[in-house]
Amino acid sequence: MPQPTPLLINPKAGSLFRSGLKTWLRNNRRAFRLVSTESAEDLTAKARKLAESGEPVVAAAGGDGTLMCAAQGLVGTGAALGILPCGTMNVFARELGIGSRRFDIALEAIQSGITQEVDIFAVNGRPFLQMAGFGPDARVIELITPALKKRMGAAAHVVTGLKVALERPPLITMTLPDGETLQGTQIIMGNGKRYGGEAHLFAEAEYNDGRLDAAIIDQENMGILFEMLGLIVSKGATRQNISDFTKLRRIKNCTLTCEGDLSYHLDGDYAGTLHPGEELRIERMPHKLKVCIPETPVALTPLERIMAHPAIAAMREKLQVLNEL
Ligand SMILES: [Mg+2]
Q1: Is residue 63 helix, strand or coil?
Q2: CATH at 207
Q3: What is the pTM of this model?
């Protein structure tokens, strides 16, 4: 029987009940030592304390925002982050092959002894795990009320998106270390491939290459939406499949300025607004984060499982041949 892993948990979080984690924990309580947390700061402080006391793995239950708080306490300590993904999107857990709300696989990852190192980037010193968005996508998140999100879940983004579609997005300037400048109305940076749920926005992003993948889109609001949908449908941006309105860069660091008020989000949480004359600095943090991963990544969506079936793969290959005739 492995040693119980400390599990940081907010006992009042609604996601515990909605995701079924509360019930699952009842049947797996011996695997964990529950550590109650009251706030984001408390969670970060307790994560650090546990890591400094020599725990090899510190687990946290929550969505991407909660995991980032735990990561902030663990980064640079040598302790690995264990993930019980009970949030709405669980993008980071999906990316690492743990999946969303697949608690048996999450436990297997925590007990596997296998870890992966993940780059951590920060916006003006504030770190994020998975992605950062600057422009209308962040404006949508800024305007979503907690009540709406609770009632509609992911669909709240669509309703609020219609509101934002009527605004004019300000022009953002991105300056790279070599002096190159790029302009667009929506910038998205990915530490991994996924943007939300199973939607891939960057086909070639890697967690451990010391770089952020960035898409700079220069379009009006509806155009931005179509550009992003296009990239998601084609399973992520590559230099081959992007349109003339989108540019791709793989960056170590950069700065952003804007001609108008620019909302930005980190891991899907509204993080602030940049005003004209101010600057956002995006850079890599000195330490990487260690994360527990399962031996075999979870099979993805039902559609992906179907597409990965040998018969379907063979059929697609045949169609490819027909295409080339
Ligand atoms: Mg990368």
Answers
A1: coil
A2: 2.60.200.40
A3: 0.85
